[in-house]
Structure formats: C-alpha cells, structure tokens
Amino acid sequence: MLTNRQLHCLKGIGIRHWPRSHAVVETAREPLASEPVAADPAPAKGAKPLKPEAKEVRPLKSGEDESISGSETGLPPKLSLETWDEINQSIQQCTACELARNCSQKVPGSGNRQADLMIIGEGPGHDEDIQGEPFVGRSGQLLDKMLSAIGLDRDQVFITNIVKCRPPNNRDPKQQEAQQCRVFLDAQIRQIKPRVILSVGRVSAQSLLETKQPVGKLLEQVHQLPGADIPLKVTYHPAYLLRTPSAKAIVWQDLKRLHQILNR
Ligand code: SF4
Known about the structure:
Bound molecules: iron/sulfur cluster
Distance between the termini: 21 Å
Number of strands: 10
Radius of gyration: 18 Å
Order of helices and strands: HEEEEHHEEHHEHEHHEEHH
Number of helices: 10
C-alpha cells in the first residue's frame, strides 16, 4: 500500500495510482502512453540506501590530468581538480567555450557531495542562470516531486548539468561545449562516486552515453557510464514532462527501476 505522502507525491507529478486489482503489468514501453498509471506500490518512504564501497570512476582522458594547463583552452591554468574547492574555482574561472560570454553566472551543481544518486541534466536555463542553482523553477519543482515519490529529498542527491553555463536562448549545448565542460563533470563524478546516475533528457543521455539514439530508446535499459563501473538510468527531462504529461507513466517506471538499483 502506498502511504498518504507517496500518494500525494504521485498526484503532484500527475500520476494516478490505481489499486493493485487494477494494476497494469509493466511491458515494453510505448512512448507517450495515453493514460498515466502507477502499476506497483512505491518504494518505502524515506528509503536511504547505504553508501557502497568506492567504485572505479571514469579515467581521465588525455589532457584531463589533475593539473590542467589551460592557457590555450580557456581552462584555468595549472589548477588542480582534486578537491571541491578546486573544481568549483576552476568552473568559475573557465572561459573554455563561448557559453561563458553570455551566462549571468556559472552553475556548478549542488546537493550532497556523498550522494548515492547523481542527477545530470543538460544545462542551466533562465531560472538556473539567475539563481546559480540547477533545476529550479517549474522543472525543479517537478524533479523534487519525482524524487519524493521514491522517498528521496533534494539534499540526499547531487544535481548538476552537462554544461555549467547557460546556452543562449535555451538552445541545446553543442557537442564541443559538452566535451569542453566534461572535465568538470568527470571531476565531480570522481569526488562523489555515486552508486547510480540518473541522466535526464536527450542532451544529457546522448552526451554521457556517447550515442545519437533517442531517449525513448535509451530509457529501455540500465546502462553503464562509459569508462566507469556506475549504472546509468535515462529518463525524460522534467521540462519535457511539463509539456507532455502523458510521458509521466514512463518516468514512473524509470523511477521505480532507479529505486531498485539504489536498494540492491
Ligand atoms: Fe567552461 Fe563549461 Fe562554462 Fe564552457 S560551459 S565556459 S567549458 S564552465
């Protein structure tokens, strides 16, 4: 049985809960189901998985050594990325791509630096650019409800984006921009060593998995972050859910799978 709080959370993200007698068996996903239905009971309230032993994390690429010489790249010169202070200072000083010229401020990410779950979106939007925090505004509120539905609060996870500066006019980050910013994301992943990564949205999923496959295909299975022993689950971006409420049933299945990974 779902608790009243979980029912409230599901209602908040637009998912109807039916009693088990009306449950729909989970089958291969069809994009944009016509009627959102939660098939199974939600995970236990307040579930907080234990931190496992450290995992092998994506190795540095050539040129991404802990001491980066950035005189020609726009990256801060000779700045180590071994501590959070160094990572955040490097992001603040970075001018490696054109996104630095147009953003109001950098949005490095926020949350629990020892989180089991790391959430990675595509890039800061208008609200994030103003507030300096990832996933604020309506998308952020919906993300909070999605997390609450599996018993998590925002302060239990770490949230960041593929790029740390807002793309102008909310365009997608270019592949080159994502690649230039990757050194910071990889440094954050090495610090956190999450048990699982939730990649939200097409840009994030395609960048992290180095593929052109659509999100609707990528969310059918649990992946591994290339070069690291970290499970990676893909789901739709909250902003997409706001435009396409019928996709919430699919996201609910993704959240349940995420919870299973966190608790195994
Ligand atoms: Fe540097 Fe990343 Fe901002 Fe580009 S998006 S300027 S690589 S911090």
